[in-house]
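[Automated response] Your request has been received and processed.

Submitted sequence:
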Amino acid sequence: MPWKEASIVSLRQEFILEAQRGNNLRALCRQHGVSPTTAYKWLSRSANGEDLTDRSRHPKNSPQRLSDQVRERVLTLKEQHPTWGARKLTVLLSRDGVRVSEASVHRILRVNGLIKRKGFPQAWRRFERECPNELWQLDFKGHAALSGQATRLHPLTLIDDHSRFLVRVAALAGEREKLVWPQLVLAFQQYGMPVEVLCDNGGPWGRPADAFTLLERKLIRYGVRVTHGQVRHPQTQGKLERLHRTLDEDLLSRKTFSSLREAQAFLDVWREEYNTVRPHEGIGFRCPAELYLSSSRVFPERPPVVQYDSGDVLRRVQAGGFITFAGREYRVGKAFKGEVVALRPTEEDGVLSVWYCSQQIKLINQP
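Generated structure:
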């Protein structure tokens, strides 16, 4: 039978004595349940006067073993960035010249109880524009209470689709157009204007089935195309959804602010880290600031003059958002009250398209 742990040394000594008496070695191996290789090892140690106890199987030298300095560095980075996992921390270490595998970083975090188990991620197919400023995504990150105040915090976020660069994050007191538009102007003045802005269907950029909002009208007037995500399909704005989750994990769920001013100060610091420090998996663990370039479309001091083609039929939008054509009234939306729109024929007989500046805003069917 195999050697027992309790008397392993004495059994090995007995085996050696029987072998030295001239007994058949292989028969002894079968009797004691050991291999010939093991038997020769014990015979060799006995002949050299070495002890017969088990020796450590760890190598004398382990070039892969992490130093205490590396372990401390990993734990320090994790403390500084508690929501970041092994992948992002490995990227930060490599920037500092520390060569360590992601698996090793993960093991350090796991041993120290710093890994939170998550469910299997849902596989999304990523889409992105080819260049910066082709598309910006715009939304609010819900709202949160301010300590001791009736006013609530409404974080406004504006992100570039290509680079994931967080163009702006603003601590606002509500979600009204008069609060949002000044923030967009500041973004346009600092970074130029995008070609298109993608919004969801909530206020102040959301729209009923047949109308635009005042905020959308202003964007279109400045030459920015406005599009909307599909209703009840948040994945249309998946990059913003992911940004909001990070914002919540890193900051909003960890701190309560006493004022909008204080909230803005923390948001500004977080935005700087998000753009210039945090490795982003969706762009190959680079930082958004590495990919982003300001737009060449300069924001004008005054709204551009509305111009249409010579063959267009022009109408001024009246009270209630109506226009008159061929003796009938058609509603194009209250947001365009006082503005001039253009009517153009379509390929479909009896259907006209209504344009405001460079964007189609409605189709009307003639009787």
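Summary generated for your ticket: Residues 119-125 have pLDDT under 50 and may be disordered. The chain has four domains: 8-47, 68-111, 136-291, 313-365.
If you did not submit this request, please reply to this message.
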